[in-house]
Each structure stands twice: as structure tokens, then as C-alpha cells.
Design goal:
Elements lengths: L24 H14 L5 H12 L5 H13 L4 H44 L3 H26 L6 H15 L5 H16 L8
Length: 200
Amino acid sequence: MRRANCHPTPILCMTEPKLAPRPSLDQLFWGMLQVALSAFGGGLSAWSQRIVVEQRSWMTNEQFLTGLTVARLFPGPNQINMAVYIGAEFHGLAGALVALAGMLLVPFTLLMAVGLAYFQLHGIPAVDRVLAGVVAAAAGMALSMGFKILDQYTKDWFALVLAAAVFVALTWLHLRLIPVVLISAPVAMVWYWPRRPAQP
């Protein structure tokens, strides 16, 4: 039996999560298509995290959160920005275009067809109730992703304080998103900016 390559110290041996090989352009397309077709009623970020991180192991949770943060700082739909980020991360411009196509091509076609049907059937109470149930399920998915990524920061008091402050500012104080981002983002960047270790 091969022994683990750990230093003889009293601390536990920690291993980095094993990532899958870099996805091909075909895999990027089908992965983003899977995200798009899974997220009926919303919850795209939750489904994206589940597929990209948990199922396909293309990124770690930390890498995914970095991309999601970048996606939310730029204008436009978050998940479209995220698809571009993921594609560009692996294959540059070609990857960004392929991931974007996977995210938009089939869902756009289905949306046009479903939209036409909805305008004919939305007055039926049963259809309205089904859609309400789908939205509730999507909200549950978003909450589940929040609890999963919370584990990354349970030992980082500053991240927890900053997250709580942003939550209070947006939810209870009803401040606008842009001023909150313009204040919290520079504070976070200054705090986490790499610093040189102190000279002995």
C-alpha cells in the first residue's frame, strides 16, 4: 500500500480537490446547455455551481466564486457573464463564444415557443400555480448554493462581516445595489490584496 505524501507533523494532511482535465469546446457547449436547461424558473447560479463544480469538476468552489463575483460586477445577466468567464478561462475567445452559444441557443428557441404558448394559456389557474411552484423550487436551489459556499468562509471573520453588512444594506436599509458595490468592493479588495510577508 502506498503511503500518503504528508509531512510528519501533528496536523491533518489536507489534499486539494482533484479537478477534471480541461474541458473541450464540445464539453463546454454541452455543459452550458445543461445549465441552461436545468434552471427552469431561475436558480441559474445554483445549477451552474452544481454542474461546473460538483458534477464535472472543472473548477473548485473558490474559482467558481471568483468568476461569479466578476460576472456580477459587470453589466448584463449574471449567468451570461459567467458562461463567458468559464469559456474564456479554458479556451479564450473561442471558449467564450461556445459557452455563450450553449447557454443561449436552445433556451432562446424554447423560450420563443413557450412564450407563444404562455400568452395563450396563462389565464388558466392550473398553469399559474405550476409556474409558482417552479419559482419556489428555484429559490430553494439558490439558498442551497448559498449554504454550500458559506463553508468556504466560516473561518474568515472579515468575509462574514462584509457579507452581513451587504445583506443588511440591501435587504433592510433598501440601499441601491450600485452604491453598495462601489463601497464594499474596494474595501474587500484592499483587505484581501496580497501583502509581502513581514521581514524577520
